[in-house]
Write a structure and sequence with these properties.
Oligomer: single chain
CATH topology of the largest domain: Chitinase A, domain 3
Radius of gyration: 22 Å
Mean pLDDT: 93
Largest sheet: 5 strands, mixed
Helix content: 25-40%
CATH class of the largest domain: Alpha Beta
Distance between the termini: 29 Å
Number of strands: 7
Low-confidence stretches: none
Strand order of the largest sheet: 5-4-3-7-6
Length: about 160
């Protein structure tokens, strides 16, 4: 059983979804199945089959979330000493060496990644190139579009 890194926020989001699935969605689906059964013949009952399909999706998602949470290693970067080194959970400000364009990313777990929100997966090419480097280092990121050179401007534990 391997452990998967996850931020405190990522864990909270998954736990909230799990609570909603178990506390709201599952009982609603069970009620819909019971009501559909009362309509008689189950072979031709579209409501019954739709509710059973919903139940399958719901139970599958519950198992998936429980599995992810059981394998998660929660890392609270705010409790770690700020050393200027890039590690899981930090927010990194990078400067493109060619264009002087500044970008900012938070390195998070795979399930938490959301590029538009500035959250990149720890397994992404950029994060893999950054992990273990320090503020001021020049890093070459091998991306599908080619090699990009960045300077690590700032590493924040927020």
């Amino acid at each position: 059983m391997s452990q998967v890194p996850m931020t405190v926020e990522g864990e909270a989001r998954l736990r909230a979804e799990l609570k909603k699935l178990k506390g709201e969605d599952r009982p609603r689906i069970i009620q819909a199945i019971a009501e559909a059964r009362e309509h008689g013949d189950l072979k031709e009952n579209a409501e019954y089959h739709a509710a059973r399909e919903q139940q399958g999706f719901c139970e599958g998602r519950i198992k998936e979330l429980e599995g992810k949470l059981s394998e998660a290693r929660i890392i609270d970067v705010t409790k770690l000493p700020a050393t200027g080194r890039v590690i899981f959970g930090v927010t990194v400000t990078l400067i493109n060496c060619e264009t002087d364009e500044e970008v900012r990313y938070r390195i998070v777990g795979e399930d938490e990644a959301e590029v538009k929100a500035g959250k990149i997966s720890v397994t992404s090419p950029i994060a893999r190139a950054l992990i273990g480097k320090d503020e001021g280092d020049i890093v070459v990121v091998r991306a599908p579009a080619g090699e990009i050179e960045y300077e690590i401007d700032k590493v924040e534990h927020i």
